[in-house]
Amino acid sequence: MPTERVYSEIRLVNRSIGDPVLYIDYPDRNNALLFDAGDNSALDVARLADLEAVFITHHHVDHFIGLDRIVRANIDSDKTLSIFGPAGTIQKVYDRIKSYEYQYFPFMKIVVRVHEILPDRIRWALLECRRRFPEPQVHEVAWDGGSVFSNDEVDVEAVHVDHTVPCIAYALLEKPGYQLNMQKLHDGLLRPGEWISQVLSRLKAGAPSNEVLEIQGGQFRLGPLAQQYFRKSRGARVAYVTDTAWSDQARPGLLRIAGRAQRLYCDSFYAEAQANQAEKHHHMTATRAAQFAKQAEAEELILIHFAVRYAGRYHQLVDEAAAIFPNVCADLPSLENQP
After folding, report:
1. Choosing a second label site near 68 at 20 to 30 A (CA), which of 122, 187, 274, 328?
2. pTM above 0.85, yes or no
3. Distance (Å, whole) CA 261 – CA 304
4. Hey, what domains does the chain have and what are their CATH numbers?
């Protein structure tokens, strides 16, 4: 049986043919997640300001150019924004932030916590606006290869892959439990508000179903609220893999992070006819992405990061993958979906 997902928005920002950027948000929380920091101009400032964490695969320009908009959207906030990436991320993020001048108003309290994921440890540093972004002091903690980030809704795992520069693949794992049902909220009488977090907190604490909560001028029992506006899920896994070879070096980690994923977003920069170029530049082909999805026993494969050389015939990459893994798709302009 397919795993029910609980995110309220999951958006491949530039579809399958632009810079790979995946935006995931959860209802009524300031905790959106962004995978890769490429061109994100299609995301409005409100969505970027909702970010809790950004997960950068590597520092090629098409995966990193959007960092400036992320900083701009959050610079006036009183929050901690976490950024993860491979070796070199701390200095690169610091250099980008320090390349601008700021007026440093008292309300500018943003703290950027930057992490570098190394094979056996994580290096991290705080970039603090209220201190006018002094040179970061770098710390290290041991890492066992599992989760790199966790909040109330999700864990995020990471694995090193095989690219021409240090590169990371990620998987988001939703935690089981009650989550808001956005459709039921839309159809119901209650309006969005703080009561959602209150109900989730009481459900998580195992409060009795006859407990009464005051919401928007009325009294409501916890049990009926849970039935009417929420759902219980065992959680889903969403894997995000881009810019890697399907090599002996990378394969064990890739299969571990994408194993039984509900969705696998995977790089398919080349068709199999260009396999030699794929190996040279350490990218997937559509065929190898499909082999990967099949071996990982993923439920759905979404092909991303198509090279512009296939413009006008992107559907051929989908057909190539579908010959091996039928449940495959790509987010393409309508005309590109026609053979």
Report:
1. 122
2. yes
3. 16
4. 9-175+235-337 (3.60.15.10), 177-233 (no CATH)
